[in-house]
Amino acid sequence: MEFNKQDALNQGLAKWIIKQKKLLNISAISEETGVSRTQLNRVLEGKADFNNGHFNKLFPVLKDWFGLTEEQLIELVQDAAKILAFWNQKGGVGKTTCCNSIAGVLTDQGKKVLVMDCDYQGNSTSLWNIDKQAFPMEIMDALEDTQGELIRDCIVQLHDISEQLYILPSYGKLNNLETSEKLTTKQKLESFKNIVNKIRFEYDYILMDMRPDMYGLFSEAPLGAAEWVFLPVEASLFSFDGLSRSVSYLKERKKDNPLLKIGGAFFNRTKPGKNQMEQIENYALGAEREGIYVFESIIRDSVGIQKAFTYRYDPTVFLNKFNEGEIADFPKTQLEPIKNAKSDFMELTTELLNRIQNG
User: Fold this and answer.
1) pTM of the model
2) AAA domain location, by residue (predicted)?
3) Domain tally for the chain?
């Protein structure tokens, strides 16, 4: 996704100040520039970033004092997050479990990942059992904040799962997006893109778990923020027929977001057996004839996924926790399905990353 140069400069300046904080006299900077110490300290704590007004006051002074250049600031944020959406116009195909299991693989590889729950039903939020009382702010609060000051307060770090995993929860208020009086129609359509641009320099990957909406705000707005969209499908004729309609719709969305790439479809909840594998091969050939990329990696229908998430872990994190002795009440004899699930998602994630890298 292209990003606004000024947004990059604003966030690059925030990163520079955080890196240099031990060498800086915050009181002197505040006095010289007129930017409040409160604002500077919020940036240092990672609770805010700078807007254009702050930048215009700060940059000339820091340039004079330290020889700071715009090129240095751009370099600090050039590795912006990849924005991946998981969507299908058909519900019940496993978008949520796939999205979050891929997030688990990425964090296990040392990547910093944010899962955005873009569905007012809050399936990703429920999957991780987010405590609403402890973390009351949600995605709708961030979307309605046109100043972009609340987004970091809405994000929850899942410390007990992985220091690298974060979620932007949804508790149901998102259902009011279409009728919100705080946003114009244009602001609603651009709301997801706006909050993503505020934080995309702080993560390696942002994964969007979308609801099965078509020709509505709940698909158009998130897809307007995404770089890639991936479609989980089941090996059933009904699911496969919907794939063609989904891809046609995504091609239409590219008119509004020319940077959106259709990453392809992958089969989820597949069952062992010759008949289904032949069915999958036939569906894949049909999809490829229509120009739809189909992943070679498949996700088997496995109780391992459900067992892992029962403990509030994806398969990858579950096995890490088990091996570290943090899960003592699970029989070792029942690990095989979870190992299979982890293996499937590792292969899928590897292929997905290769797909992104090769464009």
Assistant:
1) 0.82
2) 82-260
3) 2
